[in-house]
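TL;DR need C-alpha cells for one chain.
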Amino acid sequence: MTPCEAENGGPSGGSSGKTSDGPSDAEVFIGLDLGTSSLKGVAVTAGGEVAARGHAPYHTTRDAPGQAEQDPGNWLRALRRVVRQMQAAAPPRRWRAIGLSAMIPTLVTVDASGAPTGPAVTWEDARAEAQGDAYRAAAGEALCATAGAFLKAEQSRAGIPGDGPSALYKQTGQWGLACNAPQDPGRIKMPMNKPPAPLETLKYTLSDEGGNTGNLPLEWENHIASVPFTVK
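>> reply
TL;DR here they are.
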C-alpha cells in the first residue's frame, strides 16, 4: 500500500461500515482503537450486538534503520473516515458513549495549543535503543524501583490485596501482576498515600531530599507510590 492509498483509506477506501446485526433504532456505544497501522471503530448495542464497523489505515514512515514515524494528522483523517463509515448504519443520534484506546508508548510533541510540532514516534521506533540501554544501566536500582512503584499502584488501583514488595521483571513482554521471582531483578516496598484530589494525569516527580538521598513519587488517580533512593 502506498502512502497515498493509506491517506485515502486504502485501495478499497476502508470498511463500508454496514452490518446486518442489531436493531436499527437501538442506542449504541462506540469503540475506537488507534492501532499501529489503522484506526478501527465499532458500534455495539447494550446487548452486545454489532450495529456498525469502520476501518481506515494510515502510513508509517520507515526511511531510516529503526525509524517508525506517523503523521498525527493522518490519525484525525482516519477518525473522520471511520465515523463516516459507521454513521451510515448507526446515526450519531443513537450514540450514547465513546470509548478510546491507542497504541502505547507513542510520543507526539505539541505546542501550547495542543497542535503537533512534528511526527509521532511510534512504539515500533528503535533508533534510541542504544541510549535506552545506557540509561537503564546508569539508572540501575532507581529505575527498578520506579517501575516497581507503578506495579504497586496498579495493584492498589485494581483492588488486589497484598502489602508485599513491588517488583520489576527483567524478562520483556511481561504484563499483569503474576509473581515470578526468578524474573525480578529488583524488589522494594513503597509507601502508599492518597492525593487530596483524584489525578487525571500520570505524574512522576524527582525531588532532592539532601545528603545524597531523593524521592521519586508516582501519582495516578487516587494513589501516590513513593520511591526513596540513595545515590552512591
